[in-house]
Amino acid sequence: MKNWPLWEIFIRSKQGLHHKHVGSLHAADEKMAIENARDVYTRRNEGISIWVVESKYIHASSPDESDSLFDPANDKVYRHPTFYNLPDELEHI
Amino acid sequence: MVDITSLEKKFQERIDSEIKIEPKDWMPDAYRKTLIRQISQHAHSEIVGMLPEGNWITRAPSLRRKVALLAKIQDEAGHGLYLYSACETLGVEREDLIDQLHSGKAKYSSIFNYPSTTWADIGAIGWLVDGAAIMNQVMLCRTSYGPYSRAMVRICKEESFHQRQGYEILLTLSRGSEEQKAMLQDAVNRWWWPSLMMFGPNDKDSTHSAQSMKWKIKRKSNDELRQQFVDITVGQAKVLGITLPDPDLKWNEERGHYDFGEIDWEEFWNVVKGNGPCNRERMAARKKAAAEGQWVKDAAIAYAEKQRKRKTETSRVA
Ligand SMILES: [Fe+2]
Ligand SMILES: [Fe+2]
Predict the structure, then answer these.
(1) Closest Cα of chain A to B80: distance in Å?
(2) Quick check: A23 and B151 CB within 8 A?
(3) B301–A28: do the CB atoms touch at under 8 Å?
């Protein structure tokens, strides 16, 4: 018989915050995945909302290519406020 | 082509500069294998560890004790799941790990092959067994593999309640009748040495230790952790008014640590090899649960598939 698929679990710990990846679990369907996630990852009120995604649907960038992938941001110091020279007496900017 | 030695060198440099290794990163085969072995063993220990405690749920002396024990055991199931989940990021299947446990190929902590014969044992397990586990797990929060380290942080947050509930059971017994005090002392007599064995063989006899330390999978040696455990536990035993069953246990001013007696390594290896008092019983219970629960797993999959089919059919009609 087939095994239960793997699901990735994301929890919103409180209103106003992002859902954050916390781990994975096996479940037959999405409803069971949410119920199991409640029992596995929120036994002490760690969450108020749960997202479940079947692991096979997650696509990730490759660490081998991360140099070239993130390279474009490396030489753009002008994207940061400290790049701009302003006099010290200037306030509220 | 990138040659393997330069990859290994880069890998070690990352470890040395305390950069965590994540699932998709390149890692030496032996690092992956070591982690799979260690994390799955750890997961199995959490799961098998529920059995000696489960033995007392229906006989807990009060409702307060019963809900606490239930919550503790449920946490241990959770710990097993966090760890299986971490292990699966290394490219292994959960079912294969479980099969390895049931076939005897994978080990679990030997401590769970001892019987829990009285209610005081539940206290002693929480105090000593969870206490020893905490020593190890606090160290593992800083392990070099990201998913393992994150699982450990979650686990450590939950463990302190386990140890406190155990200690409270013992404290209550220590203030009870002579019979209860004797029961307390007897439980500690039986659990003390197996708890010290939980840290594994002495450093000089530990086969995997040196490499694991180099890879920062482990951050402290077996003997260091054991010493740390003895040092903090002696004071806690005094509060209970009990003696620890070791005539050689005494403070060593010069070392700044407690000296303690030699562990019976013959007993240790004997239990590891499967000849402890409960090895067979534990595995029989695990296999029975897996076999008798299989139809539930099958039915859930069949139901999910049926629901999915029905959904696509109705959406086609609409
Ligand atoms: Fe645990
Ligand atoms: Fe525990």
Answers:
(1) 10
(2) yes
(3) yes
Cα–Cα distance between B147 and B143 in angstroms, integer? 9
B183, two tokens: 């029961």
DSSP per-residue letters across B123-163: HHIIIIIHHHHHHHHHHHTT-SBHHHHHHHHHHHHHHHHHH
Cα-based angle B286, B290, B295 (whole degrees, multiple of 5): 160
Q: Which residues between 231 and 260 in chain B have a beta carbon less than 8 angstroms from any beta carbon of chain A?
A: none
* Residue B21 DSSP one-character state: B
Query: What are the pLDDT tens digits along chain B (318 aa)?
Result: 668 899 999 999 999 999 999 999 999 999 999 999 999 999 999 999 999 999 999 999 999 999 999 999 999 999 999 999 999 999 999 999 999 999 999 999 999 999 999 999 999 999 999 999 999 999 999 999 999 999 999 999 999 899 999 999 999 999 999 999 999 999 999 999 999 999 999 999 987 788 999 999 999 999 999 999 999 999 999 999 999 999 999 999 999 999 999 999 999 999 999 999 999 999 999 999 999 999 999 999 999 999 999 988 888 776
Residues of A in contact with B303 (CB under 8 A): 28-29
Q: Residue B250, SS3?
A: strand
Complex ipTM value: 0.90
What 3-state class would DSSP assign to A3? Answer: coil
Ligand 2 midpoint to CA B72 (Å): 7
Q: Which CATH number fits domain A1-59: 1.20.120.1760, 3.10.20.520, 2.40.50.140, 3.90.550.10?
A: 3.10.20.520
Instruction: Output the CA B47–ligand 2 centroid distance in Å.
Output: 11
Ligand 2 geometric centre to CA of B48 (Å): 12
Closest-CA distance, A12 to chain B, in angstroms, reads 16
Instruction: Enter the pTM of the model.
Output: 0.94
Of B81, B150, B300, the CB nearest to A25: B81
> Per-domain residue ranges for chain A?
1-59
The token pair that represents B163 in the structure block: 């140890």
